């Protein structure tokens, strides 16, 4: 076991490829190349990023040259300011979301008023969006290792990207898919998410590292797809049957309890279903912030 910040565990998934799992909080990835390191997600506030940097230094003396934001959310990307010498990479939409003043203030307010140890620090984060962005895909070669960055459509946000190591059959999924955990849905695009998950499965990874929770198998990735598909289907059926929002939410919880009741965050399914209901009834271009 590699020594790391208390509460975190570093797991080597392939030679020079690490998952840094943070119990109950946000995970990161570390890929060591020939002359530099790529970090996946900079975490919630600068002090968390500094802990991550310290853990990278325990693994290798090589400099961190790239930071990849899986998506715009504060707990994944608000440590970016601690990497002034690295290139911050993300999706076009990730950058746009991080430049959306209203959205940033909404997240800042949530983080700052949560009463958590990082709340005060969240007030003063300099949100630093990616300076290198792409639309569909980007390819990096680190010490002969192919690292593919892919965007398959909107899902958990408008700009979720996946970091795929095809030779190692490893995938970093951000918050689009967890092993046995309910993702945060209320910034997402529920219908699109099902299609995005379908494309994700076509990569056929053996294992995946989520933004939260443990490292998952391919079967767990299928489960994550099924969760979103079932949520969308249940809400869609409720709308077709003319149910109101509250009924749709309650019935979706009951429909999903048998298969998914043991998942982390299952108590969030009702609010997620009600959000999905509003989204499916709204105009196709309605923004998540209008539907919360
Ligand atoms: Zn997220």
Q: What helical percentage do the residues reach?
A: 25-40%
H-E string: EEEEHEHEHHHEEEEEHEEHHHH
Kindly provide the radius of gyration, computed on alpha-carbon positions and rounded to a whole number of angstroms: 18 Å
CATH class membership: Alpha Beta
CATH architecture: 4-Layer Sandwich
* Small molecules bound: zinc ion
Describe this structure in words.
The chain has 292 residues and is of the alpha/beta class. It has one domain: Ribonuclease Z/Hydroxyacylglutathione hydrolase-like (Metallo-beta-lactamase, Chain A), CATH 3.60.15.10. Helix content is 37%, strand content 21%. It contains ten helices and 13 strands. It has helices at residues 46-59, 74-77, 92-98, 101-112, 119-122, 190-201, 218-240, 245-260, 269-281, 288-291; strands spanning 8-14, 17-22, 28-32, 37-40, 64-68, 87-91, 132-134, 137-142, 145-150, 162-165, 170-174, 207-210, 216-217. A seven-stranded mixed β-sheet has the order 1-2-3-4-5-6-7. The chain has a six-stranded mixed β-sheet with strand order 8-9-10-11-12-13. α6 (190-201) packs antiparallel against α7 (218-240) and α7 crosses α9 (269-281). The protein is globular. The N and C termini lie far apart (42 Å). Zinc ion binds next to loops.
